Amino acid sequence: MKKRWIILLLVSAMALGCVGKTIEVENAVPTAKIEGSSLYVKKVENLPDGFIMGMDASSVIAEEQSGVKYFNFAGEEQDVFKTLAESGVTHIRVRVWNHPYDANGNGYGGGNNDVEKAIAIGERATKYGMQLIVDFHYSDFWADPGKQMVPLAWKDMDISEKADALYKFTKDSLKQMKKAGVAVGMVQLGNETNTSMCGETYWERIIKLMASGSKAVRETYPNALVAVHFANPERAGAYDGCAEKLEAFGLDYDVFASSYYPYWHGTLENLANVLNGIAERYGKKVMVMETSYAYTGADSDFSGNTISDETGNIVKDYPFTVQGQANSVRSVIDTVAHVKNGIGVCYWEGTWITVGTNSWEENHEKWETCGSGWASSYGGSYDPDDAGKYYGGCAVDNQAMFDPQGKPLESLKVFNLVRYGNEIEPKPDAIADTVLAFDLKGTIELPETVDAVMTSNELKPVPVEWNVTEADLDAMYRGGVHTYEITGTAEGLPARAIVSMVKFNYLKNAGFEDGVLEPWQTEDRGGADQLYVEDKVTDSQNGTYHMHFWSAKQGSVDFSLTQQVTDLPEGVYRFTISVMGGDGGETEIFCFALVDGVEAGRTPMKITSYGNWDTQSVSGIEVKAGQTVTVGISVRCEGAGNGAWGKIDDGMLNAED
Ligand code: CA
To answer: Using one digit for the tens of pLDDT, what is the confidence trace for 449-474?
Structure first.
């Protein structure tokens, strides 16, 4: 009898342990439109009710420990999670590192995001009616396509031991969350695991680890979605390769998630195609797990940002304004909402702002003690090559959705307003840069109008006043080949013209910016797999277009690219062109000039690696009246690896005097 009582008591104690705490929910996510916003938002049509509007807010606790205060739209101090919910955020994402502390207990930084912090964040998210997306990095610090370091405690384990440890860690972490009453909606098995995870680089091993994590999720939160997360949707075929492996090894998961940073990750059209393909072929749900956009080019925490006004070679489809930020997010939501099985979009670190306004020293002290920078100096003990060298503050404070004082930006309301639309009268939001080139022997004529980027992201010509004097213009005529920045004002907004003083370029469509090949011509002697004009800003030396080549088979990259020019004034000319590429094997690349079909000179060129442009010239090209000049580049590569590839840009034919 007595024994039975004890058993009953034990059973009820266990049951209580499983149920855990119940968090009293004060649902703050609005079920109607937020009225009165000054933000222009075009409605996203047919947006499903349950569409995830996520916000990664991993750094909040470290921020608060550093003294950061967050406010609501009325200017009152308020729990930032309540403000997020009130703006239409439905899910909070949080990264989890196994043990982000050195042997003396000093945090590595980046929020010092361990399980304990995830629970504290999860409790607050749950309280305001949101669900948690748990992002296990399975590392002691940042995991991304560049690094996937194994947690120190697991470093000597074989794959079976590691899988077992990962299972236990996942299960234990989730059980603690459950006990605390946290509403977990989704769990990620690794972060941006493109080619490795947890120190492993073979798919079979990575998926074995993922499978043990998946099992732990199913056992603790059976209603939560299990997600995998990759980056670089712009790499053709990459996601298909990943999804195929996951299928082949039978991983039990629900969501195939992608990062999408518009600066680098290709077009939205490509993103839609890639995600649609995964949804169709593998029957998975798909989403964007990380995206963000700058609301300003300025840094606010004395620690340089990833993106600024000076950042070159990025796609900038929207101005760096609060409205531009909202427009970018709206476009990503619109794209995912119209993809098959598209379930949501999560913004990355919208709450990570400066911890001080006075000096680097003031902030540095907080980054070190509270972990509110991307890495503290202590992070170097685990990650000497990156954290150890470049530790510091926040590189995305200009992509937050709160200003440096902790006040929410109007853009935050986009998560609510996309459901209803807020198509108010568009007004000028920023002035697009004007890019001009003038012949040194010609006349500088600055335009009287510039393009205003409207809040609706449409362009509209508006009058401009340039801050330029006659003396400035004189200096430009006399200054030789040079590029100048001229400022101005239009509609009360700053305008900017980038003016290049150049020698006249006798080539047409010289940098392929017409988006077509003509009047260039190609002679494809090797039958290349790809040889075309490509629209990709990140691979262009200037502008957004360039000539692209790639071919898998040995020796199949063998072509010339030429342009013929007639009616040149008699004189001496110089031809210049640029190339970059790789995997060339043995190459014979040269630029050349022919006058009436007779070679007038050639200069060897080389391809080495991505981003390393080789610019070469043929000079002293003597031309008499009526002669035809043909200039161009000849490319022959044996090919190595996956085949020779390259980019050609910026042909120039100038008078040499
Ligand atoms: Ca910064």
So the answer is: 999 999 999 999 999 999 999 999 99
